[in-house]
Amino acid sequence: MSSDPFERTLNPLAPDWLALPSDANALAPGLWPLSATRNNAGELMLGEVTATALAAQFGTPLYVIDEADAQTRAADLLAVFQDEFARVGTSVKVYYAGKAFLSTEIVRWMLEAGLNIDVCSGGELAVALAGGADPARLGFHGNNKSLAEIDEATHVGVGTIVIDSEIEIGRIAQAAARNGRIQNVRLRVNSGVHAHTHNFLATSHEDQKFGIVLSDAARLVDRIRAETALNFVGLHCHIGSQIFGADGFAESAARLLELHATLLHGGPVPELNLGGGFGIAYTSADEPTPIRQLAEALADIVATECARLNIALPVVAFEPGRVIIGPAGVSLYRVGTTKNVDVAGAPRLYVSVDGGMSDNVRPALYGADYAVRLADRSSTVAPMLVRVAGKHCESGDIVVDSDYLPGDVGPGDLLAVPATGAYCWALSNNYNYQGRAPVVAVRNGVARMLVRGETIADLLARDTGAAPSTPTNGGKS
Predict the structure, then answer these.
(1) Which positions are catalytic?
(2) What is this structure's pTM?
């Protein structure tokens, strides 16, 4: 290979899935919010606001959420699932999975779009309530709900609690009775279907912390039905996350409906919750299954299996999160340093930015891949293979493992990483005492803060041994 790092040839260090772009400024379809474009100066625009202006006003790292994009995806998904399940003769409930990203404003967006909210901790419950959610529109998950969390959920009137283990039956029943309620509950079961995904993301094989095995389900439902303070509404299953295709969902639904039919002999089972886990595109090589295709396939399998079993179709519930909020989010970073590395005659440019695993731990945690583009300008310089690295004291602190940027990328440039709306802010942390980044929403040329960022003063305020002082850098981290 030529020693010229800007030569327009595929770098042998690039992964097989990564194609050499004809234009390293282009915004790949499916990766970016619907409003993403470039203006005449080459600047990235989100919600009609330039990335340059966002970085100047709010600093970097910065999470940007396209408000209209998120709301549109939520409303469209609900409409599609309603259409497809109405076609086969039943209805659906859609819960936004708050674990993907939750703030009071996100709660309001999802409720306005017609979705319910799924929470899995006392903190998420508090955010949902602060966002104005009717408790009856909430579902509560978790493999280790504390007694205090269960008590609070039953006290405020959470619509449905998902029972994750046998021990929770008595705990929830006691709390419901104490709070004078009959609590709707689901039982989470493992269907035995292992979705094709990272092992840490697969959540429905038997050897893992969530749910109970199918063979124990009938006995536990009998126990639930024996509790006068509990009302069993149906089974719940979640086969994993970031799943492409409908085959895993279809097989899991078929197995659950076999059990569902058996449980009908002991009483009503009005609902069936098939979870979430619908995948999105993180790179140009990803081809997620269209939502309409997923909904159609799932409606058909539920209808077919119910006909075969000669049972009525239940109300079917889903819990999408990533597919709604993930593509609506973009992260902005400022380049600090660059470093050319020669690997057996092949060049790779390390581009270090002012964030990293504190604002996106998914690459380190799951080996997740992302894409990257210049955000404050475009360039005609030939593309070069880059690895975008964070600023943390870890060799695994990589934001984007492999992508192509114009070869003149350098210190001071603004970079944008798409599809970061889900599980980035939610998993953010203070490693190396880095303050968590702010979140802003953009719409119709206006940017507004959703969650403020943390300063060094915020971090020191939690340290009981720190004397009150004014950080010399003005509190920025």
Answers:
(1) 393
(2) 0.92
